[in-house]
Every structure is written in C-alpha cells, then in structure tokens.
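Can anyone check this?
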Amino acid sequence: MAKVSTRNRNKNKFDKDGKLKKPNWEYRFEMAKVDGKRQHASKSGFKTQKEAEEAGTKALAEYLNAGQVHKPNDIR
C-alpha cells in the first residue's frame, strides 16, 4: 500500500544572514514501477506539515482512483 511521507526541505539550512530558513514542507509517495524503475510523485512549497499531509493524501487518492477500468472480454 502506498504511503504519503512528508519532510521539511529546509531543516538545518541557513540563509545568507545566518538565520534558519523558514520551513518548506514536501509530500512524496511511490507510484507504479515503469520499466522496473521506481517512480515517485512529490510536491513542495507547503508552509506547514499538516498542509503537506493533506495535499499528499488528496493526490494519492486521485492517483489510486485514476486509471483504466477492466472490461472482461467474451472468451469462447
């Protein structure tokens, strides 16, 4: 089952004045493999971890609900 993970991309980073940078949260989840290689979907720029988790959960739900519908064929 796919899981949404979040991280602060600016953790322990400083700006040119020596101050800690503001948090920049990102969500990321794994999608289906293509040619045997793992694929990920991610987006960053969220101000809080909660915003990133909500957006990531919504994006994962859209990804899981999208796709082709299986239509069985008449086999004789």
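Reply from J.R.: I decoded it. The chain has a mean pLDDT of 89.
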